[in-house]
Design goal:
It is built from two helices and twelve strands; from the N terminus they run H-E-E-E-E-E-H-E-E-E-E-E-E-E. Helices cover 29% and strands 31% of the residues. The strands form three sheets. A six-stranded antiparallel beta sheet has the order 7-6-5-4-1-10, with helices on one face. The relative contact order is 0.14.
């Protein structure tokens, strides 16, 4: 007479096998999760660096000869948050096949208020022949710009001139620019600061 396994024995064997698999797979699952988080962090850091590099490149290629005030900081506190704009009369629009023009960076209000456009740091290319001094905040609509860093809720800019950090500035290339980025709840309202040192004029 053949002896069969009892239901209790089968349940015990399946339970032991499941326990062994769980113990063996736990480190693998944990490693995969860590790798996924590291990749996400690296991607976010990379995008942030690219945005800062775009600002730095524009500032380092300011058109200074015969131009009054090629760099302008516009302080614009709104909804209890700092919402500055940086305007550069620069050679950097070469990527848009333009010899020079005003490039602006900032967070448009329409995106922060939850409109149809994602919130974040935008770049505007003003292709007409206007210098930074004659441009106002109302022109910076998300539909006219390009999102270069998603998730940013507020941005601030300061210029180092004469050994002092200024949050309102119009003039030639300063010694450095400081960029303040503040993210939304998706990133725990994280704040990041960058200093961009510029060549001596």
């Amino acid at each position: 007479m053949k002896r069969a396994f009892t239901l209790v024995e089968v349940i015990i064997v399946v339970g032991i096998a499941g326990l062994i698999m769980a113990v063996g797979l736990a480190p693998l699952v944990y490693s995969v999760r860590l790798m996924s988080e590291a990749r996400a962090a690296f991607t976010a850091e990379s995008r942030e660096r690219n945005a800062i590099n775009a600002i730095a490149q524009g500032a380092r290629e300011l058109v200074s000869g015969g131009v009054s005030g090629p760099l302008r900081l516009m302080r614009n506190d709104a909804l209890g948050k700092r919402q500055d704009y940086l305007l550069l009369w620069t050679l950097f629009p070469s990527y848009a096949r333009l010899p020079m023009g005003t490039v602006a960076f900032g967070v448009p209000q329409d995106s922060v208020l939850g409109g149809d456009y994602p919130k974040g740091l935008y770049r505007w290319l003003l292709s007409d022949d206007r210098r930074p001094g004659v441009i106002n905040v109302d022109e910076f609509k998300p539909e006219n710009g390009r999102l270069i860093l998603a998730g940013v809720e507020s941005v601030g800019f300061e210029a180092l001139s004469g050994g002092e950090w200024l949050d309102e500035y119009t003039g030639d290339m300063p010694q450095a620019l400081r960029v303040f980025l503040k993210y939304g709840k998706e990133r725990g309202e994280e704040e990041r600061n960058y200093d961009i040192w510029l060549p001596k004029s």
